[in-house]
Amino acid sequence: MEYRRLGKSGLKVSALSLGSWVTFGKQVGTEDAKTLLRTAFEAGVNFFDNAEGYEAGASEKIMGAAIRELGLPRDHFIVSSKVFWGGDKPTQMGLSAKHVREACDQALARLQVDYLDLYFCHRPDVDTPVEETVRAMHALVMQGKILYWGTSEWDAQRITEAHRVARQEHLTPPVVEQPQYNLFVRGRVEAEYRPLYETYGMGTTTWSPLASGLLTGKYLDGVPEDSRLSLPGYEWLRELLLNEEGQDKLAKVRELKSLANELGISLTHLAIAWCLKNPRVSTVILGASRLSQLQDNLKAIDAVPKLTSEVMAHIDRIMANRPAEPERFGQ
């Protein structure tokens, strides 16, 4: 396993990490979670990602129970939570100082830990001043409840504002952003955030490297019954696949699969390895509902050397979506 600094911080995160969105609490119970966490941990994964909004807290309860029953040493792993969607009451939503504090305490209880290594603002909150949220996060750092904080799917302007407030008021700034990043979603990580890396040393914990399974190739012949797109509540994902844009994506997936075959690797490994080629990516968060799926995805790190500059250029030609002013990588 490779370990990368989380931006300019001193925290070292495994290049591949394990997340729980859609799986823990929906497809995975405590016993299966223990198997997945143990396998990831033994492979060198040291970062486990979670959020209060994942299955209304059930995901954190399952992860916390699994970690406790496995007896993982607390100084061997990194665990996160995110704050935004805590419930249906006005005080259970958003990034107000009240919700930030209470959500943190609730996450600590569900995960059965004394502190969070990373705490993310799950989405921007237009109803709460950035200064209020920065102060709330700083207070949690001072209380020892969190070590680092970050954002998820914030635009560069709002992240810059958070840094400005932190510097002006002598508060703890965000050190990490958690954006979606894959072969179909590139602009934010490669172009929009470029000044953030250079000015503030932001790290990234990227999610959905396989584009909700699209980049595994399993949807080339329809929607399998045991896939994410077949789950209740995820009809919106299925609809996106069936429209004209979705069909265009499937055509590109077929070309990528052909390239992967030429390289002697799977399409899944190509997609994950492509994300890892970007040095601005601190870690790629994997999701898995089955042990075999996780074991296979972890092997993607071995495919990175096969993605030479020529292969990366070929991928760019297939995708035809390279941002106008991207962060250059894979050369």
CATH topology: TIM Barrel
Structural class: alpha/beta
* Strand elements, count: 10
CATH class: Alpha Beta
Keywords:
331 residues; alpha/beta; TIM Barrel; globular
Describe the structure.
This protein is an alpha/beta fold and 331 residues long. The protein has a single domain, classed as Alpha-Beta Barrel (TIM Barrel). It is built from twelve helices and ten strands. Helix 1 links the parallel strand 3 and strand 4. Helix 1 packs parallel to helix 11 and helix 8 packs across helix 9.
Can you describe this structure in just a few lines?
The protein is of the alpha/beta class and 331 residues long. Helix content is 42%, strand content 12%.
Give the arrangement of secondary structure elements.
Elements: E1 3-5, E2 12-14, E3 16-19, H1 30-42, E4 47-49, H2 58-70, E5 78-83, H3 97-111, E6 116-121, H4 130-142, E7 146-151, H5 156-169, E8 176-177, H6 187-192, H7 194-200, E9 203-206, H8 235-242, H9 244-263, H10 267-276, E10 283-286, H11 291-298, H12 309-319
Parallel strand pairs: 3-4, 3-10, 4-5, 5-6, 6-7, 7-8, 8-9, 9-10
Antiparallel strand pairs: 1-2
Helix pairs in contact: 1-2, 1-11, 2-3, 3-4, 4-5, 8-9
